[in-house]
Write a structure and sequence with these properties.
571 residues; alpha+beta; Glutamine Phosphoribosylpyrophosphate, subunit 1, domain 1; 2 domains; seven-stranded antiparallel β-sheet; zymogen; hydrolase; transferase activity; transferase
Length: 571
Amino acid sequence: MVAGQPWRNRWWRPGGGTVQDLAVAAEDTTLHGKRPTISSLHGVVAAAHPLAAQAGARILGNGGNAFDAAAATAAALNVVEPYMSGLAGLGYAACYVAAEGRVRTLNFVNPIPRRFPVERFTQREELARGALSVGTPGNLAGWCEMVRVHGRKALPEIFAPAIALARDGYPLIEFNVEETRGTAPELRRHTALFDTWARTYTDGTGRVEPGFILRQPDLAGTLEALAAEGPGHLYGGALGRAVVAHLQAAGGCLTIEDLEAARPVWGEPLCVTYRGLRLHTLAPPCEGFQYLLTLRLLEDADLARLERNGVEHLDLVWRAIRLAAGARIAHNHPSSETLAWLLGDAHVGQLRARLHDGQPVEGPTEQWTPGAPPAASPAAAAMAEQHTTSFSIADRDGNVVCVTQSLGSPFGSGVVVPGTGMCLNNFLYWADVNPHSPNRSKPGGVLPVCMAPSIGLREDGKPALALGTPGSYGILQTQVQALVQHLDFGLPLQDAIEAPRARLMDGRAVHPESRIDEKTQAALRQRGHAVSPLPAWHMRVGGMQAIAIDAATGAMTGACDPRRDGYVATA
């Protein structure tokens, strides 16, 4: 069958019937240009690159579980999405542990380096690139901790797919090319960074074409050493000493003591109920509570009766997002008491009154800003948006893992440690260095991060949904918009991810994908939204990977975002 076309007159239906009957009967089951539904009873991996999804599915097929597959997928993403995440990045995981019948969370965002000279900076743009932007790596520790506590496989087997991809190489596909080309001109201005970066990812030219074979032998060697020696090779061992020496020679602040102190932290999830689904993500310092607060604000709104993607639907959702963002920024790292108040009925009731009062809502969506903030343009936010990856995995035993992890900006700090193939993060760009901010970061302090990997449980306590997305502060917006499409309007998960979305910026700025009707956009401007559309499909509104689990059959169905190179693979 050709995708998007009904079956034609090549087959008879058993028992008779005309060719016309068959064509008409098939109309309701054809793809009509959409992706096929990919489901399995044995395990599903939804990741941001086909080769990474296949790496995780290979581990599942060889007897590993979702935790093993998560580490394999993450390591493979280090190779095939080197601009998005890697072992020297940071991240979070939400995990449903079937043997324990509960959701656990894992925080592998380490504290800010203890020698970080925050007093030298007044705005975050000063930390966009270079050695001083590097936070303490956490991803490797997180991957290994999931395997240590809940996995079945050893690191040599888990890292084998990534090692092979790094050594043998792989052809660059569309998004690989776009990200590498997009980063090269900016990094070329950083002469201390560019040559090593260009040798590692472009054979020294600074430019790539579709089909270019990217081989990373240094990274293959690093992964082999980590597989043999374990995470201690980085966190205090020879690899860690090499990283620190390189950074300190370039003026960085990371120390071997920071690496030795790195510890992934298991925790209890934060959760709210929305449309009968119990949605879990990480508690602070993770900033995912904004996402849950937005859902609380929308819980009493009968969105299903509204026109999908119409004025009333979008106005409500955008207003709720902006109100919740304001609460998150005002209470950026809340105590447990403050958090309970933020998500509690009294505060939610106050915000709901504002949600429905019809007056324009204006305020920040990123970090704390004094006074009335300007409306940021899409171009101004570009570097901050293109930096993160998220993947979801479910296995035949009932385990579910959702991971969101990042290098910060594209290729992180731009620092590639010679001889290791490691590209280091720039997560101190996400520190708040504004000297007037109530949330100003402190050396050795926590680093709140805007990610929200999430798992939804049904009323019987069994998992129904895993979803996460990249997108900087837009993560906390994208997941709400997709969930509304899925839970309120009843769209299948793939269709919900493909539905048009918007990215809200400081002030009143909203950047919707242009598939939203122009008359609807105009009406939303009349309601006070400063609407400036993006192209029809745009990665600034995220790149979600998700899995839905059928309550009756146990079938696991993956969904991936066409805005990036998302792909679903099955065991």
